[in-house]
Amino acid sequence: MSNYQTETKLTQIGNGFDQLGAVNIPIYLSTAYRHQGIGISKGYDYIRTGNPTRSVLEKAIAEIEGGQEGFACSSGMSAIQLVFSLFSSGDHIIASRDLYGGTYRLFEILAKQVHLSFTYWDGESVEELAADIRPETKALFIETPTNPLMHEVDISELSYITKKNHLLLIVDNTFYTPVLQKPIAEGADLVVYSATKYLAGHNDVLAGLVVSNSEKVTERLRVYHNSCGAVLDPFDSWLLIRGLKTLALRMRQHQENAGRLAAWLGKQLFVTKVLYPGKGGMVSFELTKKAYIEPFLKALHLITFAESLGGVESLITYPATQTHADIPEALRLKYGLSDRLLRLSAGIEHPDDLIADLDQAFRSLQKGAAVHG
Questions:
Q1: Which residues are recorded as modified (N6-(pyridoxal phosphate)lysine) (predicted)?
Q2: Which of 26, 36, 160, 219 is surrounded by the fewest CB atoms within 10 Å?
């Protein structure tokens, strides 16, 4: 399917795999597979090592990304952990300063227990990034756009630097998905996903994906993936395949809604800043006062206050106490993640209904402000 467009590849995942002609890939629940003799296998032996449903998913994401091999993991964090199995004590990693709080938490654990060291880059000056490279530096780990400040970087420009210095370039592509951004085509060596989010798309699956395009690391990832066992189970693999089939359609609506919401939010009295990179389904915005956060969230009826993103339902998150709570407050404030910031994942509802819900929440704030002078 290499000659087809991304939308076609997504839609056709699993079609043609089943020997009986099933258009929808079956869920292979078997943990073990019959051997015809010693050393004779049909390609599957034990569920942790390989599963047909999971294999279809892994091959599909690798082809869609333009990579060598895909790995389906039990969560987005286990996908990042799989990638970091490549590194050893004393290795140095440069990472995005604005980073998902769970990733930062994992990096702190790895720093203490495995003795990796981390330098955080603000994404602004390429010269500063180059200056942070040491003899022991092994990789650059970036989010683009970042979570939740929505800062983008030029992957191709970073690829030039990493290749020049023999570093791995790892890109978390959760926010944009392969529909909007293909890091490997721009020079990345590894792509990671919290597939729980847009790829699955229905707020009902926990999953992670890794795509490798580096021969020197693919085999190592394969061995560790099997050895540590943080693999995705067959049913969730099937659910993720189902979600991927409609990803392109969903991303269009996510993006259309996010664009409209960003433009509308920019005109509101209680909003001081809107962070939207111009594409994708994520919008962050700051209110004028921290005191307005809780009453605003309580006033919402349609948009759900919840700690996730990328599903068909619109969700709003307060990073300071949810997704980024593990980042020390002083550090968050220093790089611009304020206690007045909200992160909105635009779902696929009608945009007029989403705007109406935000509008009535802001009007309730206005009434409250008037009552309290």
A1: 197
A2: 36
